[in-house]
Amino acid sequence: MVDFDFDARYEARVKTLYAAIVEFTTRTGAKDLPPDVTDRIYILRDVAGQIVRAVKAVKHLRRNATAYTTHDQGAVTEIYDALRTEIARILVEIRKLDIAEPEARSNLWLDEEAAQVEDDAHNSNRVVDALIRKGSLDADAATSFFNDSGYAYNAMRDLIGAARAYYIRSDSAVAEVERILALDEEEVGEVMVDTAETRSGTTEN
Q: 3-state SS of the chain?
């Protein structure tokens, strides 16, 4: 297990960076920019906010998750490990979106995962109730899990929302910019020539 001061890292890196993003967005909003550019900047600010909320939720979750999963304690370890696995799976899938070509990114996984998160959140209480009735989980551990599962599922919702806004809701112009930036200089020149010829032909017609 990686041991580091989560609170210190949050204050020094996450909170500081988010504050800078908010300040930049505020200054940008005062400039005379095209509406689509301004809208995109505010969307990215909101994405940053969702990521910050997810990090804060995990920060709240981490203390009990660490206490209950450092060594095997039976049912409570299993349910906390399940929460951690769900968060990890979402992060892995978001990474896949990140490395995929813009035109290959699909909204389908995000829709399915969002629905799965809601089902799991709804069912978790029943799972815990069943464990308490069986005597596999005491009331103190159950109370901790109820609180922490709320943090976990909120983190998952924010991660999925951020991924949807950042990777899927980008308009075609943003996707085209990403594609062109991936080309080498020669290919960029060819694209520019083709575009100029197309416009010239359109004008002549």
A: CCCCCHHHHHHHHHHHHHHHHHHHHHHHHCCCCCHHHHHHHHHHHHHHHHHHHHHHHHHHHHHHHHHHHCCCCCHHHHHHHHHHHHHHHHHHHHHHHHHCCHHHCCCHHHHHHHHHHHHHHHHHHHHHHHHHHHCCCCHHHHHHHHHHHHHHHHHHHHHHHHHHHHHHCCCHHHHHHHHHHCCCHHHHHHHHHHHHHHHHHHHHC
Q: What is the dihedral of CA 163, 168, 169, 172, to 10 degrees?
A: 140
The overall pTM is greater than 0.90: no
Residue 181 burial (C-beta neighbours within 10 Å; 0-12, 13-18, 19+): exposed
Q: Which two tokens stand for residue 85?
A: 């696995």
Per-residue confidence band for 71, with pLDDT thresholds at 50, 70 and 90: very high
